[in-house]
Amino acid sequence: MSSPVPSRRAVLRFGAVALAGALAAGLSACAPDSATEAYLNGDQKAYTTKDFRVIEIPADKRKAPVEFGGTTDAGKTFDSSSIKGQVAVVNFWYATCGPCRVEAKDLEATYQKHKADDVVFLGVNIYDQAATAQAFAEKYGVTYPSLMDADSGQAKLAFAKVAPIQAPPTTLVLDRQGRVAARIIGPIDGVSILSTLIDDALKEKA
Predict the structure, then answer these.
(1) For the residues of 72-141, what is the DSSP string, one character each?
(2) 98-114 vs 34-41: helix crossing angle, rounded to 10
(3) Minimal CA–CA distance to 112: which of 36, 191, 199?
């Protein structure tokens, strides 16, 4: 008799458990800089592996679409109306956040995997100025843009009623209507969990 196929929720739960162990091991194996040391010691407000959670929101429980915008690190104006009808991933971060550095390559890998699916990736930098964000992107190979939200806080405020951002990194998946469909609290590790959430949103009708 063949073994039963694990459910998608089981895969997500397993991935979350595996992430905590893998990320902890990865961080302990490398020589951390001062920002990462602060994160590990709890002196810097950032989500850690013990905080890691995946929250999926059924379509009939989602709140209103989030309307947000701002100026990107490249100086371009962005408005969420321009991505209406597309699935989007919004990642809240800042440059000296240790776990944000850890997850950067995996966010980029997930972006590359789903770019052909017309999925939009957008960072929201909550502390830095554009030059710092661009230096981070160059160092860690991030090719999608980020909104610079440190001065205005407009993007963070726009999401406050549906998905309050208390600390980075936090990653949101928006459905084609612009509603928050899933929330990842803490740094991702690998592409599997986020990719599964993106696939789920892509399968839904607009």
Answers:
(1) BTTS-EEEGGGGTTS-EEEEEE-TT-HHHHHHHHHHHHHHHHHGGGT-EEEEEESS--HHHHHHHHHHHT
(2) 100
(3) 191
Residues in the chain: 206
Residue 169: cis peptide before it, omega within 30 degrees of 0: yes
| Tens digits of pLDDT across the chain (206 residues) | 444 444 455 445 444 444 444 333 333 333 334 434 443 444 446 666 667 899 999 999 999 999 999 999 999 999 999 999 999 999 999 999 999 999 999 999 999 999 999 999 999 999 999 999 999 999 999 999 999 999 999 999 999 988 888 789 999 999 999 999 999 999 998 999 999 999 999 999 86
CA 130 to each of CA 94, 134, 192: distance values in angstroms, whole numbers, following the listed order: 11, 6, 30
Burial readout 172-198 (b: 16 or more C-beta within 10 A, e: otherwise)? bbbbbbbbbbbbbbbbbbbbbbbbbbb
Query: Which 3 state secondary structure label does DSSP give 14?
Result: helix
Are 39 and 46 within 8 A, CB to CB?
A: yes
Please, are residues 177 and 65 in contact by the beta-carbon 8 Å criterion?
yes
